[in-house]
Amino acid sequence: MTALRITSLTATLIAAIVLTACSKNESTAAAAAPAASGAAASTPPAKSVEASSPAPAAPAAPSSPEVSPERDLATAANALAGATTEASAAAPGAPVAPVAPAVAAAAAPAPVVATAAAAPPKPTAADIEATRKQAQIAWALKQDEIKNDPSGQWATDARASSTFNDAKGNTSYSANQAAGEPNVQVYSTTPQAWSSKTPDSGIEWLELTFAKPVHATAVRVRESSGSGALIKIEVFDDKGAAHTVWSGTDSTKELNYLIAEFPKTAFVTNRVKLTLATNVVSGWNQIDAVQLVGAKQ
């Protein structure tokens, strides 16, 4: 039905177009007609001999509605457009194109102004001195704690792979300089600590004996020069077999202890062996004292 209506309106539109063309032709002919009438009026009419009765008036032709081709053309065009819209709306199953929602333009983010972090205040001379004193106090307290540990004991005797100047007994630089309590107070090369025969020579060892056999739990080695050269610590059982309780890289700095802690040994021991790689830290590597920590049970 809708298709039929569109066809009819289309035909009407075509007819209106034709009628418009005809109207233009008629307008052209009408413009030429007055000229012809003027020519006829100039000819005098023929003289009548006798009067004739007037002729009856011709019946008036029914007036036809005024034809406006332009108006009909516009009306037909509007009707055709409306019919097309109705047909599109009435067509079943015709997909309707979704209307894309208007997307608001995202507001441009405000520029971020980077602010430099405030530099920490530079420490004053008083601050530096206070820090130094605190470190020294902490170090002294730790030394005192180790020295007076009731579970610890200092070596009573020692021997070594070599000694500076081939020192023997209790002479300067001898192995026995590593026996007893610590007695070096400054990080430096000193006769009060054991030194190997030559510096940076490679592997050297120092073996120490203690008065009381114990189930060991720790060994504390006080390094006083060239600290950081230890690579292994062993303890010996009552049958003379060696057991490694620590090995690795020595992180000791300056005058301080390497402390090796380990599970309590199942056997009792009173012998400790230290192995050094003297080429790791250049210069003389000295040991001031060694403490064995443990219990009888």
Structural class: alpha+beta
Overall pLDDT, averaged? 77
Q: CATH topology of the domain at 142-295, which one?
A: Jelly Rolls
CATH superfamily of the domain at 142-295: Galactose-binding domain-like
- β-strand number: 9
- Strand count, sense and closure of the main sheet? 9 strands, antiparallel
CATH architecture of the domain at 142-295: Sandwich
Residue ranges: pLDDT <50 for 5 or more in a row? 1-7, 18-67, 83-97, 99-104
**Gyration radius, rounded:** 62 Å
CATH domain class name of the domain at 142-295: Mainly Beta
Estimated share of beta-strand residues? 15-25%
Q: What is the H/E string?
A: HHHEEEEEEEEE
Q: How many angstroms does the end-to-end distance come to? A: 114 Å
Characterise this structure:
There is one protein chain. The two termini are 114 Å apart. The longest helix is centred in the first third of the chain and has 40 residues. The chain is built from three helices and nine strands; from the N terminus they run αααβββββββββ. The chain is an alpha+beta fold and 297 residues long. Strand 5 and strand 6 form a beta hairpin. The chain has a domain of 154 residues: Jelly Rolls, CATH 2.60.120.260. Helix 1 runs antiparallel to helix 2. Strands 1, 2, 3, 4, 5, 6, 7, 8 and 9 form a nine-stranded antiparallel sheet that branches. The N terminus is likely disordered.
Summarize the SSE layout with pairings.
Elements (H helix, E strand, L loop, with lengths): L1 H40 L27 H22 L34 H23 L4 E3 L2 E4 L33 E2 L7 E23 L4 E7 L5 E6 L8 E6 L7 E9 L8 E10 L2
